[in-house]
Amino acid sequence: MPRLSLTMKEGTVGKWYKKEGDIVEKDEPIVEVVSEKATYDLEAPTSGILRKILVEAGVDVPVNEVLAVITGSDEQFSEAETCVGQSQPVPETEERVLASPAAKRLARERGIDLSLVKGSGSEGRISEEDVEKFSEESPRTLNKIKETITMTGLRKTSAERLSTSFRTAPHSTIVMEVDVSKALALHQKLEVSYTAILVKTVARTLIEHPIINSTLDGNQIKIFEKANVGVAVATENGLVVPVIRDADKASLQNIDMTIRDLTAKAKQGKLAKEEISGGTFTITNLGMYGVDFFTSIINPPEAAILGVGKITERPVVADGKIVIKPLMMLSLSYDHRIVDGAPAAEFLRKLKERIENLETRE
User: Fold this and answer.
1) Of 59, 161, 252, 311, which alpha carbon lies 20 to 30 A from 194's?
2) The dihedral of CA 269, 272, 275, 280: what is its sign?
3) What CA–CA distances, in Å, run from 174 to 20, 112, 293?
4) pTM: predicted TM-score of the whole model, two decimal places
5) Are 25 and 44 in contact (CB under 8 A)?
6) What does 292-325 look like in DSSP terms, one character per residue?
7) What are phi and psi of 133, to 5 degrees?
8) What is the DSSP string of 130-194?
9) Which residues, including other chains, have CB under 8 Å from residue 132's CB and lie 6 or more apart?
10) Which residues are 32's β-sheet partners?
11) Are 211 and 321 in a shared domain?
12) Distance CA 138, CA 215 (A)
């Protein structure tokens, strides 16, 4: 199992493109691997015969675990060798209650705790009829399970990363309202997305406020040289954050095309390793869902994340007159170990100023 990012601890084996006994060529994709942020085709390190598949599809395994064995066509092979370096299976603990397989299945479907069911069989063994009877007698206390979703691969690792981030990094959030009249004009003139405009303006502001563009390594704060902005993308398997590199130097049109390309790949699960790594700051937008503002969880090991709300037309006072303007809420969540309130507020104030003073030639 390859390590596809610095924080990756395990991956999920997807589908195998080859079966045991097949001839494989070096650099030919042989198996799909699901990491924390993307789906990756693992290529054969050498040419030969795929002698043994050690991990079936759908199984989570630690980084560096052996997935399969490839040998030369004339090379001797012993299955005993495949045990070397492999994790030993953990024996299953004995069932807490005696129940038939049918009873267990029905209990899972109906969300019933089998320890509450009285078994009518030998030694108190619970039958399917016992579960059915319990269900009929206790309808008000039960809630049938419609579907069970096992957290594996991307969704499981994403959940672990977010939990770790929230536990280890003290989050603080500040919010500012921004007039996006100039951004609206730029969006219409250049036919680029609001996200592309935000990526560009955020990247420029990061260069001017480097403490936001940093990470904590032990007791050292390390400032990133480049502004590589990640954009959170919702997929069926969870959030993915593809990265736009050197976003402060790229044109809006190039940023817009890159976002579209990366978003399409993310939804297909086809992002490459280099397209999801190296981010220094993340933007997450829930405006399209009608959300005004929200608190985001920092994408480790970054120092901050920007939440983007919906655009709403509201009356405001400008030059002593009431006018209607398109307004948007920006919320900056930051790691308070790295960033204090004042520099965080200054960053967001500068970002607001830059958005409200955009020029159409951006």
Assistant:
1) 161
2) positive
3) 56, 44, 11
4) 0.64
5) yes
6) ---PPPP-TT-SEEEEEEEEEEEEEEETTEEEEE
7) -65, -45
8) HHHHHHHH-GGG-----------HHHHHHHHHHHHHHHHS-EEEEEEEEE-HHHHHHHHHHT--H
9) 106
10) 41
11) yes
12) 54
CB 12 within 8 A of CB 59: yes
**φ/ψ (deg, to 5) at 2:** -75, 155
- On whether residue 226 sits in a domain, the answer given is yes
Per-residue burial over 170-208, b if 16 or more Cβ lie within 10 Å, else e, is ebbbebebbbbebbbebbeebebbbbbbbbbbbbbbbee
Same domain for 212 and 126: no
**Backbone dihedral region of 319: left (phi > 0), alpha (psi from -120 to 50 degrees) or beta?**
left
* 3 state SS of 359: coil
Instruction: Name the one residue in this structure whose structure tokens are 């390309």.
Output: 261
List, by residue number, the catalytic residues.
Answer: 336, 340
Q: Are residues 260 and 128 in the same domain?
A: no
Task: Report CA-CA distances (Å) from 115 to 105, 327, 343.
Answer: 14, 56, 55
Other CB atoms closer than 10 Å to residue 310's CB: what's the count?
A: 16
Domain with 242, as residue range(s), is 169-356
For residue 86, which amino acid is it? Q
Average pLDDT, the chain: 86
The token duo for 68 is: 């399969």
pLDDT tens for residues 75-126?
Answer: 877 766 665 445 444 344 334 578 887 888 888 777 787 888 888 888 888 9
At 254-296, the pLDDT tens digits run: 999 999 999 999 988 888 888 988 999 999 999 999 999 999 9
Complete DSSP assignment for 87-142: PPPPPPPPPSS-B-HHHHHHHHHHT--GGGSPP-SGGGPBPHHHHHHHHHH-GGG-
Greater model confidence, 178 or 162: 178
Domain count, the chain: 3
Q: Tokens 């929230």, residue?
A: 166
